[in-house]
Amino acid sequence: MDDQSLPPGQFDLGYFPRYGLWQFSRYMQEPGGVQVTVSNNEGALFILTEAELAQLDCIQQSSDFHCITSWSARNVQWQGYRFSEFYRQFVVSKMTDAAPVKWVQFRSADNYRTFMAIEDLLADDVLLAIAVNDQALAWEHGGPIRLVAPAHYGFKSAKHLTEIIFCNALENYRSPALHWHEHPRARVALEERSRFLPQWFWRYFGRLAIPAVLFAYRLAAKKRKRNS
Ligand SMILES: Nc1nc2c(c(=O)[nH]1)N[C@H]1C(S)=C(S)[C@@H](COP(=O)(O)O)O[C@H]1N2
Ligand SMILES: [Mo]
Questions:
Q1: What is the mean pLDDT of the chain?
Q2: What's the first-to-final CA gap in the chain, in angstroms?
Q3: Would the CB of 159 count as within 6 Å of ligand 1?
């Protein structure tokens, strides 16, 4: 089942589903305009909207997407802005704090949360995405704006972004459900699925969950369509 051309323990699912933690399958809000609060440890710095994004180069990127539960989707076509450009253009000059930024927290409209190391976010392939496969980012894949970090497991690519917090220490952070085992880096190439237990355990444990999660997300999509 494992595909040698994919990273360790991943298999090709053949399509790109809406997916995530079980309890977030019920989030149904139609996305509005981009409105992301950008903060540091002391509070809000500014609100990121389409006006700021329009000042950055909009780029296209094709990348594989790897979920921690072991499915992968090949060649997902993204359109968006390099996180590094956004950071250098709008954030660096507003960081008054002398301590260097180390961690960045992401918060989402569905109450999802995650975080990444700043050095990982400055990679060229990390995007703030606004379109996928030639369609504006709709509810399905995290509209109006999401993170895309292809070298990291999918749970780091927060959908429906509402807040980005630049921190020098990771205080007051609570993982939404991964809790004690959320890996701080979650690099796909190194198979950093968890902080604990051998990684092959999480590979197979995750794989068992896939059908039920896909079912929950599909059911929610059907219900959403019926109610629209
Ligand atoms: N806001 C939010 N972002 C999220 C999640 C979520 O439940 N809510 N799930 C994560 C997980 S586990 C995965 S695999 C990807 C799935 O992205 P997709 O639904 O576009 O396939 O989103 C990630 N980002
Ligand atoms: Mo995932």
A1: 94
A2: 38
A3: yes
Residue whose Cα lies nearest atom 21 of ligand 1: it is 18
Q: How many CB atoms sit inside 10 A of residue 101's CB?
A: 19
Alpha helices, H only, the chain: 50-53, 83-86, 118-121, 199-227
Neighbours of 32 (CB within 10 A): 9
Buried-exposed string 45-54: b where 16+ CB fall within 10 A, e elsewhere: beebeeebbe
Per-residue CA distances from 222 to 14, 209, 216, 226 (Å) = 21, 20, 10, 6
Q: Give residue 68 CA to ligand 2 midpoint distance, Å.
A: 5
Asked if residues 49 and 37 have their Cβ atoms less than 8 Å apart, the reply is: no
Surrounding residues of ion ligand 2, Cβ less than 5 A: 67-68, 154-155
24 lines ligand 1 (CB under 6 A): yes
**Ligand 2 geometric centre to CA of 22 (Å):** 10
What is the pTM (predicted TM-score) of this model? Answer: 0.96
Q: Which two tokens stand for residue 4?
A: 């040698």
pLDDT band at 1 (very low <50, low <70, confident <90, very high): low
Q: Provide, rounded to the nearest whole percent, the portion of the chain with pLDDT above 90.
A: 82
Chain centre to alpha carbon of residue 126: 10
